[in-house]
From TrEMBL:
This is P-type Cu(+) transporter. It is found in: Cell membrane. Belongs to the cation transport ATPase (P-type) (TC 3.A.3) family. Type IB subfamily. It comes from the Bacteria.
């Protein structure tokens, strides 16, 4: 496209809440035939809140629910993950005593680990529990399955090798997600969802937005590898995400789109930023590219 057409395209983008950093993505956009969407904060609102809790306090060393909550609050206060914020906000409303936490460690794609009163605690997903050889009892598993089928993310709490319970967190799906995905499908664009979240939760969200292609329990590097696989199949790939955990995949994609509310890293890496949470801005951005490129022919 000519410099003038590019300028017009960038201006039109701005009118449509799409900030375009370079000419190249504007020129490539109309050739995109695969769109990869992050789940949390892209398809969902990124405003998670606690919806359910289940505790098992009569284990080898009995513990009171109030004690678990104070330890959980202290541990999650150290994490910057949106799920951690949801847990801390929820416990703010309850009368929870402060607890002392040491040796805090964040475990990518899994959760957190820390020490309290010389015991090691693990808070995170099933992958974390499995890796730590912490067994989930039948009742706990049943609760988790049921909550995940309702699109909740389940976080387990364990002390040493023993589970203490779970917390369920729900992040509402954006009103625009299903419509945006339909518009992309109508343009014969393949749409995929990637998430670090659990398989069942991912399946429930995918179903609600009309997606059949998704990958659950993916680590940040796997998100980038997935984009690369599509490229090797000859696809021109747009990646849309908001998190630090999306930045590798954004850097790999042909067209990279960050959500404006997201992390600075995602916005730094991406060539386009949506300054709206409305996902129909994605098909509009690709359409804009078509108009820009056509303009010069
Ligand atoms: P995503 O943002 O796509 O869900 P992440 O890699 O950030 O992917 O997280 C993957 C999973 O790890 C989360 O769904 C959650 O189960 C677990 N997790 C990560 N951080 C925490 C935390 N601070 N507390 C509890 N669980 C966590
Ligand atoms: Mg995200």
């Amino acid at each position: 496209a000519t410099p003038t057409a590019i300028m017009v395209g960038i201006g039109k983008g701005a009118e449509n809440n799409i900030l375009i950093k370079d000419a190249e993505s504007l020129e490539l956009g109309h050739r995109v035939n695969a769109v990869v969407l992050d789940k949390t904060g892209t398809i969902t609102q990124g405003k998670p809140s606690v919806t359910a809790e289940h505790w098992e306090t009569g284990g080898d060393v009995p513990i009171a629910i109030g004690t678990i909550k104070s330890i959980l609050k202290a541990g999650e206060s150290r994490s910057e993950h949106p799920l951690a914020t949801a847990v801390v906000d929820w416990l703010k409303e309850e009368d929870v005593a402060p607890a002392k936490v040491t040796d805090f460690e964040s475990l990518t794609g899994r959760g957190i680990r820390f020490t309290h009163d010389s015991a090691t605690y693990f808070v995170g997903n099933e992958r974390l529990m499995t890796e730590q050889k912490i067994t989930l009892g039948t009742t706990l598993r049943q609760h988790a399955d049921e909550l995940r089928q309702q699109a909740n993310t389940v976080i387990f709490v364990a002390r040493e090798k023993e589970t203490l319970g779970l917390v369920a967190i729900s992040d509402p799906i954006k009103e625009s997600s299903a419509r945006a995905i339909r518009q992309l499908h109508d343009r014969n664009i393949a749409v995929y969802m990637l998430t670090g979240d659990n398989e069942q939760t991912a399946a429930a969200v995918a179903k609600q937005v009309g997606l059949t292609d998704y990958r659950a329990e993916v680590l940040p590097a796997d998100k980038a590898a997935f984009v690369q696989d599509l490229q090797q199949q000859g696809k021109i790939v747009a990646m849309v995400g908001d998190g630090i955990n999306d930045s590798q995949a954004l850097a790999t994609a042909d067209v990279s789109i960050a959500m404006g509310h997201g992390s600075d890293i995602a916005m730094d890496v991406a060539k386009m930023t949506l300054i709206t949470s409305d996902l129909t801005a994605i098909p509009r951005a690709l359409e804009l590219s078509k108009i820009t490129v056509r303009g010069i022919r």
